[in-house]
């Protein structure tokens, strides 16, 4: 996160980090005791090979020894059928089913998905362990949180200039004051529309903190919300 501040992870008890072979990769959010919502590109096109992915809840800093009750392994994952990595990460969303549910009677808890179309300049909260500036060598080790504002699609495209990839209806753009932005490593993490509802997922952009809006997966898009509602009902509860 560029332009954010340090916050206590206990205030974001649905937030997880996703690791492959123990190495930090992405953010994500708990949407049921046994499911994590993240970006499809976090699975690197291998949704059939997720057994080496682990999910860590309530970790303030990436080097903190995780409590065993806050770590789970992936069992299987499903990527949106509309995911198109060659078309600028269209429909960049996936659900990871865990091998064992988290105990949500403790400190870990769930976020809802906000399927409503967002107001034009809505405030959103982004969070993660990604870089705090573009060309730094190492990940930020500890959780950062920032406020950003959604931009109307037309204004977003004007600000980007000529986007390398189309900004589709499965995406929205957002940026904060003083270029506050998500950075590499924040991918898959939630953009919250209120304290407990996920409106978007960090997906892509042109660097971070350069003044270009970041691009988020739009969970309210009809195709994404239709798929997600059915998948979550079928696979995440019971
Ligand atoms: C990335 O590479 C990435 N500024 C994530 C977010 C943004 C840019 C790049 C948005 O994961």
UniProtKB/TrEMBL annotation:
The keyword Transcription regulation does not apply. It comes from the Eukaryota. It is found in: Secreted, Extracellular space. GO terms for biological process: digestion; proteolysis. Its EC number is 3.4.21.4. It catalyses: Preferential cleavage: Arg-|-Xaa, Lys-|-Xaa. Coiled coil: none annotated. InterPro entries: Peptidase_S1, Peptidase_S1_PA, Peptidase_S1_PA_chymotrypsin, Peptidase_S1A, Trypsin_dom, TRYPSIN_HIS. One of its GO terms (cellular component) is extracellular region. SUPFAM superfamilies: Trypsin-like serine proteases. Belongs to the peptidase S1 family. This is trypsin. It comes from Drosophila ananassae (Fruit fly). The gene is Dana\GF20080.
């Amino acid at each position: 996160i560029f332009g954010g501040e340090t916050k206590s992870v206990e205030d974001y008890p649905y937030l997880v980090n996703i690791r492959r072979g123990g190495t930090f990769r992405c953010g994500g959010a708990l949407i049921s005791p046994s499911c994590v919502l993240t970006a499809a590109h976090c699975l690197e096109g291998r949704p059939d090979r997720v057994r080496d992915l682990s999910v860590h809840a309530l970790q303030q800093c990436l080097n903190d020894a995780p409590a065993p009750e806050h770590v789970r392994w992936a069992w299987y994952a499903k990527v949106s059928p509309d995911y198109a990595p060659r078309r600028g990460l269209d429909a960049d969303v996936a659900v990871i089913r865990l091998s064992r549910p988290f105990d949500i009677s403790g400190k870990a808890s769930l976020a809802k998905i906000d399927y409503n179309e967002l107001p034009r300049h809505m405030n959103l909260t982004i969070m993660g362990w990604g870089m705090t500036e573009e060309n730094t060598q190492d990940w930020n080790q500890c959780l950062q949180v920032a406020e950003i504002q959604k931009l109307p699609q037309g204004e977003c495209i004007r600000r980007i200039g000529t986007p390398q990839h189309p900004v589709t209806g499965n995406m929205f753009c957002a940026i904060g004051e003083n270029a506050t932005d998500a950075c590499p490593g924040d991918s898959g993490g939630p953009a919250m529309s209120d304290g407990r509802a996920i409106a978007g997922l960090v997906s892509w952009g042109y660097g971070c903190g350069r003044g270009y809006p970041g691009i988020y997966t739009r969970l309210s898009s009809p195709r994404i919300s239709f798929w997600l509602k059915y998948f979550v009902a079928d696979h995440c509860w019971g």
